[in-house]
Amino acid sequence: MQSNPLTLFEKIWYSHIVTQEPKSPAVIYIDLHLVHEVTSPQAFTGLRERGLKVRRPQLTLATMDHSIPTTPLSIPMADTQAAAQLQQLAENCEEFDIGLYGMESPMRGIVHVIGPELGRTQPGMTIVCGDSHTSTHGAFGALAFGIGTSEVEHVLASQCLLQHKPKTFQVNVSGKLGIGVSAKDIILALIAKIGIGGGTGHVFEYTGEAIRGLTMEERMTICNMSIEGGARAGMVAPDETTFEYLAGREHSPKGIEWDKAVESWKKLPTDGEAIYDQSITLDASSLEPMITFGTNPGMGLQITDPIPNPNQYDDLDKQHNLEDALKYMELQPGQPLLGHPVDVVFIGSCTNGRISDLRLAAKILEGRRIAENIRMLIVPGSQSVKIQAESEGLNKVFTDAGAEWREAGCSMCIAMNGDQVEPGQYAVSTSNRNFEGRQGKGARTFLASPLTAAATAVAGAISDVREII
Amino acid sequence: MAKFTHLKSRVIVLPNRNVDTDQIIPARFLKVTDKNGLGDALFSDWRYNSDGSVKPDFVLNQQQNQGAKILLAGDNFGCGSSREHAPWALTAWGISAVISTSFADIFRNNSLKNALLPIVVTTDIHQSLFELVKQSPDTELSINLASQTLTIPTDTTVTFPIDNFAKKCLLTGVDQLGYILSHESLIEAYEST
Ligand code: SF4
User: Model ipTM?
Assistant: First the structure.
């Protein structure tokens, strides 16, 4: 075996190679396969056509999140196509013996929220899902990445995947975050700096004092958006914070098994002498709240900065790209974003739909009302988050403030389920993508943290949470 | 698996950088349980007005581009989600190769599994291709996978990189799942450790 110093990624990679022939990708073993309704139907059809079974149903977990309504279940689904897709997932799971957190399950939720919540996501694992935000699970020191539907079929049938070894990219975040600045701002700042293709071909490992100081939910927010920086996976080495989060979860190891697991997890962090293919350092203490202004997550700025001018770039392509983005967003170069009117505020998604995100939003909304011009939707990442939030009375804070409180799901992050921003409207969203039309045809998205989103809802226009905190 | 050996075609130019999978196929078209009809949804929001009428200026709607199989795209094509619906929609419309300076990782993987060839060229070649097609829109490019070459009618030939294994799969139609399953005994051995 390898005795030279290894990174966290390399330790997991090498220990999961089943075989590798010369000039071929490695066959790697997958410890956990997450399945949802949108990217799996054609894979199950493929299995049927070949007469194959799911090799390890117990290492497979399915849920309904993308196209599920967030209105109460008692209201029949109006979208027959979405209903048929959800029904198809239920039938596929039944036929292939896969555990499903379905429509009625109190543990249903966004796939990247429930995996960790249930204790299914654990350090050292390889985890895949037909969804690019699978990178979220890397917060636990797992190698987790999104795959396409053909690969979903491969994993269902063989529990393996053909992969080339990616390169490693250390993202060192030093210092401590200031007040009103959160994990979301770290990742938006990173992407603004390296661009949305900056991590292509690489796996990020987030290190440094600022990362160590984050909770598991904050680490998940960061790893979640690794893909927006072009990296298929992002990881954080497991530590006491990780173990504390996992202890006692439904699927976490118990008793002596727990002790053994922790022992082995402690061997995962990158060795002192190990070398990354690339590195970058950010200083957390100099960060401000971040917000995007354009049509990809790399078009971000500090909330007090003006909108950049396309003329400041020498590169013509870059100029045109920025011009196109500003045209779509109907924004003027040189203008501040602060004070820009907004129509919709969305708090939720696999980036920022966890209980700690809702608590932050509630802190801002407590005793306040959202502005008249704002429609605010707060969507818990899972039914468990919903139940927890309600037990803390957060739902009351939200509805008293004038926000809508919903059932769990992806909702306005991807606008597949009817929750959408109308054409031309502006939204401040805690989700992860501001692509044209992502939140509804013609919708214009500003990505930001739950704190910024809540402050904006109260003011009715983009605002700096530090002024009211 | 579908094969790819060679191709000669006119070129559709889409210079936008960072074309994401939400543009290639918006999420509302992902509610299908099969692969049918996705070609109609390709670039839907760029192709149609809100009332469903065709936007005549968009490249896919232009008469001279009908039947073209090569898409010349801006940097970092295919970023965003893991939806394989993106290459399904492109191939269903008739695209067989995309030329860019870079592709997002998941999109590239998905494309190679669907006989959609992602061709990476240098920035210089990329620029000269844009120029060439601008000057002579009827230009036909030839792609030969076996020799990994892209030939421009002025007889310039450039080579492009492609992963060996993917190349073999595309040329011979190797079924990747079949390949993985041929290692069944090793998978079992791994599982028992
Ligand atoms: S919340 Fe958004 S990004 Fe996350 S899994 Fe759902 S659609 Fe994808």
Answer: 0.94
